[in-house]
Write a structure and sequence with these properties.
By secondary structure, this protein is mainly alpha-helical. The protein has a domain of 147 residues: Oligopeptidase f, N-terminal domain (Butyryl-CoA Dehydrogenase, subunit A, domain 3). Helix content is 63%, strand content 2%. The protein has a two-stranded antiparallel sheet with strand order 1-2. Helix 2 runs antiparallel to helix 3, helix 3 packs antiparallel against helix 7 and helix 8 packs antiparallel against helix 11. It is globular, with a radius of gyration of 25 Å. The two termini are 14 Å apart.
């Protein structure tokens, strides 16, 4: 399991930090109107806002990971909701930032940067703000958009709580033992060599999802309305343009990837036909797509897997290997499957500056 003590020693320490950040918001809001005085004023404002943002990210990382351990624990969900709300209030407090920087103009910002090396760490942030000029609203409108952030996050939260904590997943028998088909367990069963077991798991899992398809559809529609709303009010032609704007990436490469993937469908069909032949089935079904095509009865402990990974990434350099090894030693991941745990493997990179 991950060691959240790297973030905060306990819930009380987390709450103390959350309160400190909350109390700092009025002072941050009072920075409005000071950014253009001189380079030092701009650097001080950016520094204070950056520090609060880092604190919020660390607070959110702790709350998110704590909630992910067991999505059925109401206290952990309340903590996550609390920091999500505070992030929304922070976004409102700093809504003046982008319009005020744009009002200064590129030439003034570049003059400040040239005259004060302390602005160096904020060069990319300032460049992104300047680049977004056509899509930045006035201070009041930016505040309104910021106030919708928490609301737009709720469909994702509803989906996670529904599928990970509240949905009554079915139980089937697998090799003489009862297996509750929660998302992680379900995908594990799809690797089972017994096709009848895979079929039963697939039918049971899909039957449960089907009984909630209207609710899940409504949640998805609500989720998609979030970026659609922001794209519209910020005058982007579509949601995709909004999503790639930070990376200065045009939409065309993504459309090319989609087109090339569609061209490769005949190759994918050949692959599926080969899989059907190797499995010896008359008709290939979804539950046949994950099972290995060769038999390998080897089993590995987590430590064995870590050693193999470290050997595999050795060409990337000693610094990379040592950094990853440090993460393994310091328990920065949660590899144990348990009831109501958030599904999937992911890396939470919000907590900038936390040693791995």
């Amino acid at each position: 399991m991950w060691d959240l003590g790297l973030l905060f020693p306990d819930n009380a320490a987390w709450e103390k930090e959350r309160t400190a950040v909350e109390n700092s918001l009025p002072g941050i809001a009072r920075l409005k109107g000071t950014l253009g005085k001189n380079a030092v004023s701009l650097q001080v404002a950016l520094s204070r806002i950056s520090q609060a943002r880092q604190q919020l990210r660390r607070l959110h990382a702790y709350a998110q990971l704590k909630a992910d351990e067991d999505t059925s624990i109401a206290e952990n969900q309340a903590r996550l909701q609390s920091i999500t709300n505070l992030q929304g209030r922070f976004a409102e407090a700093v809504a003046f930032l982008n319009p005020e920087i744009l009002a200064l103009g590129r030439s003034q910002i570049e003059a400040f940067e040239k005259g004060d090396p302390a602005l160096g760490p904020y060069r990319r942030q300032l460049e992104i703000i300047l680049r977004r000029a056509p899509h930045t609203l006035g201070p009041e409108a930016e505040g309104v958009v910021a106030a919708t952030v928490v609301m737009r996050q709720q469909p994702d939260n509803v989906h996670n709580l529904l599928t990970l904590a509240d949905m009554p997943w079915p139980t089937i028998e697998v090799q003489g033992r009862a297996v509750k088909l929660e998302p992680e367990a379900y995908y594990t069963v799809l690797f089972n060599s017994d096709r009848e077991v895979r079929r039963k798991a697939y039918d049971a899992y899909l039957a449960t999802l089907s009984s909630y398809q209207r609710t899940l559809g409504a949640v998805l529609a609500a989720y998609l309305s979030g970026p659609a709303f922001e794209a519209k009010v910020r005058h982007y032609p579509r949601s995709l343009a909004l999503m790639v704007s930070d990376d200065v990436m045009p939409e065309e490469p993504l459309r090319t990837l989609t087109a090339e993937t569609n061209k490769a469908i005949p190759i994918l069909k050949r692959s599926m036909n080969l899989r059907k032949q190797l499995l010896g089935v008359d008709e290939l079904r979804f539950y046949d797509l994950y099972v290995p095509l060769v038999t390998d009865k080897r089993q590995f402990q987590l430590s064995d897997g870590e050693d193999l990974i470290l050997k595999a990434v050795a060409p990337l350099g000693e610094d990379y290997v040592q950094g990853l090894a440090s993460g393994f030693r310091n328990n920065v991941m949660h590899a144990t499957v348990q009831p109501n745990k958030a599904a999937g493997a992911y890396t939470n990179d919000e907590a900038y500056g936390v040693p791995a």
